[in-house]
Design brief:
heterodimer; A: about 220 residues; alpha+beta; 8 helices; about 30% helix; B: about 60 residues; 2 helices
Chain lengths: ~220, ~60
């Protein structure tokens, strides 16, 4: 979807201002929000693309007014509400008010290290040959789906070159809407800075994105 | 940046993540791993800065 999360290539956010000795978390509740989000994926049954969409799918003024972990918490609440794992009055009260809904699997403290070690690999066995090869000129399609996509707006409609065939990977646009993993070929596509930003761009600038095959057409 | 320096921006839009190898400063031949590690900065590992020079950690 088009939204405030898709910030690549905009100048209004200003330069990044790194915080000296930035801690992983700025408050204890952030640590808990992060842990809860990771832990709830197992009983909740959602995947990373569904949880990304749950975070980004909100009005821009709301999205931009929230901190990073406020967005994570809001996304988790939405995912849990949609599956009746929590109710609005419980969120309001900040504690359980109803019997917990039975779930098939839960993450135990002993299982955390294994879960983190496994990570979330997305590469799958290829079932079709790749349509594009290194060096091919491709155009990023002009698409504006109302659902999750990982094709940044700033490359849509622009022509680049395939720099690397990365592999065959889960397609987030399908996975986010529960339409299955639908794995696709993934490419690194590199654009000239002037193609994206005009002739005022630095002539030595190149911008690369990782784009799944359905995002691309031959140019 | 000096003329002729390529600027590469990598937008990690998929699950692939990238690590930048800091450009090894001149005058560090024969340095131990630990001494070299002292030159490495956060920015030099994400490609937005150069590592420290040897005189900066002397």
């Amino acid at each position: 979807m088009d939204g405030a999360h898709d910030m690549g290539g905009v100048a209004w956010s200003g330069p990044v201002q790194p915080e000296p000795n930035e801690p992983p978390f700025h408050a204890e509740w952030e640590r808990r929000a992060f842990a809860l989000t990771l832990a709830m994926a197992m009983p909740g049954g959602w995947n990373i693309d569904m949880s990304r969409f749950a975070r980004e799918d909100r009005p821009p003024q709301q999205y931009l007014g929230m901190s990073y972990y406020q967005i994570w918490l809001a996304g988790l609440e939405r995912l849990m509400l949609a599956r009746n794992l929590v109710s609005p009055d419980e969120i309001e009260a900040g504690k359980p008010l109803h019997p917990a809904k039975p779930v098939a699997k839960t993450l135990t403290p002993e299982g955390v290290a294994g879960m983190l070690h496994r990570g979330g690999p997305t590469e799958r066995k290829a079932t079709s040959p790749a349509l594009f090869a290194v060096g091919d000129r491709v155009r990023a399609k002009m698409i504006n789906p109302p659902t999750h996509t990982r094709l940044p707006r700033y490359v849509r409609g622009h022509i680049g070159a395939v720099e690397r065939v990365v592999g065959f990977h889960v397609f987030p646009d399908s996975n986010a809407i529960g339409a299955g993993e639908n794995p696709q070929w993934l490419y690194t596509v590199t654009f000239d800075g002037r193609e994206l930003w005009g002739n005022d761009s630095d002539p030595n600038l190149k911008v690369s994105v990782d784009a799944w095959e359905p995002y691309l057409e031959r140019a | 940046l000096p003329d002729g320096t390529d600027i590469r921006v990598w937008d990690s839009t998929a699950e692939i993540r990238y690590l930048v190898l800091p450009l090894r400063p001149e005058g560090t031949d024969g340095w131990s791993e630990q001494r070299l590690a002292d030159l490495v900065t956060r920015d030099s590992m994400i490609g937005t800065g150069l590592p420290k020079q040897p005189h900066e950690i002397a």
